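Collaborator request, handled under Task 6.
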Amino acid sequence: MERRDATPPHACEVCGLGTVVERISRSTHLVAESPAMQAALRRAHDFAESDAPVVVLGESGTGKEVVARALHASSPRSAGPFVPVNVAALPAELLESELFGHVRGAFTGATADRAGLLEAADGGTLFLDEIAEMPLPLQAKLLRALEDGELRRVGDTRPFAVDVRFVCATHRDLEREVAAGRFREDLYYRLEVLVLRLPPLRERREDILPLARRLLAAERRPAGGLGADAARLLLAYRWPGNVRELGNVMRHAAALAHGREILPEHLPESVRADAGVPRGGGGGELRTLAEVEREHVLLVLERCGGSQTEAARVLGIGRNTLWRKLRALGRDDPRRP
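Structure tokens returned to the collaborator:
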């Protein structure tokens, strides 16, 4: 495989990773204004030079495939193919053939030899999304490919070598899956060489508005901008669906705005209701994000008996992040009245 300078164009000055991720139909721009996301991308950049397997962990919709593509584009394999496979989307009986290929007559309907996606990724990167959903028997075959760099097509007796880097992703806790007997322990330890955890959107709030504006600009009928009241609602929302949900919200808003500025009434009811705006879209005074956040943080801290550790867990943020918020509120010592 030809090696070349892995420094991508449009590299981030903070993390060094390429910020423009090329896809078949469009380009995706990585946004990392938040310290949490910058730290994750710096780690991804550090992993790029290695050929070791990478496991990308994160909630659904956090952008695991986008980061995997950026990692590939920043690696010495960037001239090779990036082959994504959504393990959860393929029936178990088809997954083995899709990954490993098959020979003619291997099963009913196999009328010709067919290369699998592992062969298609030769010289590049194979991205296995939702790896925890892979059936146990197939996990054993994948382990062999990982350890030896060899595979056999279904129905064939002849092994052959492939040069593939494996990047896997899951929203599940793999240690818990191993303990429950749903994921092979030997495969877990073989994959868990380099681990990258992506923060949920609620822990990278500095990225919400930059992401929203980029997503709006990418629409076929972009809006005339993001209004201040709509921006406050986006910042106050918890985003259980993460960046994927934000993309859908921006698409919804752009369709209703008809090229005008995005206002609260253009946002889905779920976003407006979560911030205390009536579902009917009628009156109701909007509070600033600072007011909403202050009230909620102090309420959670009070109900957790003043424990910053427990309050941070309930809020879904790091303890250091909570400490900074309390300090900004003049409450760095939770025992203060």
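The cover message to the collaborator said: "The chain has three domains: 20-197, 202-274, 290-328. The two ends are 65 Å apart (CA to CA). Please let us know whether this matches your experimental observations."
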